């Protein structure tokens, strides 16, 4: 697949479903789980997925994330909050749930994403799609930096 095809929401969705057992959910289902967000925030959201397969999530975690999840679980056990694991934030912080909101300004091509939960491998994949698809434009700051690299100070204080 070329990069332009990878950045189509349809292709990214297919990849998430096939490789990560992602399940499409509606905005209402998402709002039911996460009560802290209002429906107004979904203007550019093309599609929402959840990943609940703990084995897949474990494979997406970096060693750092695995350690952080263990610390979180220990904290919840010490504070007798482990029984409330079904709460949205506990599911996210204990590695039982990942939510992915794919954004698209034109409703066809991926323009951004929001990921709630741990999974560095998945995050890096989605990030690479966003940044690879952006053409590098001429940056005037690059020209200034190049100019300064040839600059040699002079005067009585720079001998």
Explain what you see.
With 159 residues, the protein is an alpha+beta fold. It has a 4-stranded antiparallel beta sheet. The chain is globular. The termini are far apart. The N terminus is likely disordered.
Keywords summarizing the entry:
8 helices; single chain; globular; 159 residues; alpha+beta
**Annotation field: number of helices:** 8
Listing every helix as H and every strand as E from the N terminus to the C terminus, the arrangement reads HHEHEHHHEEHH
Number of strands: 4
Helix residue percentage: 40-55%
Structural class: alpha+beta
Q: What is the CA-CA span between the terminal residues?
A: 57 Å
Strand content: 5-15%
Q: Please state how the strands of the largest beta sheet are arranged side by side.
A: 1-2-3-4
Largest sheet: 4 strands, antiparallel
Shape: globular
The average pLDDT is 80
Q: In terms of per-residue confidence, which ranges show pLDDT below 50 for 5 or more consecutive residues?
A: 1-5, 133-137
User: What radius of gyration results from the CA coordinates?
Assistant: 22 Å
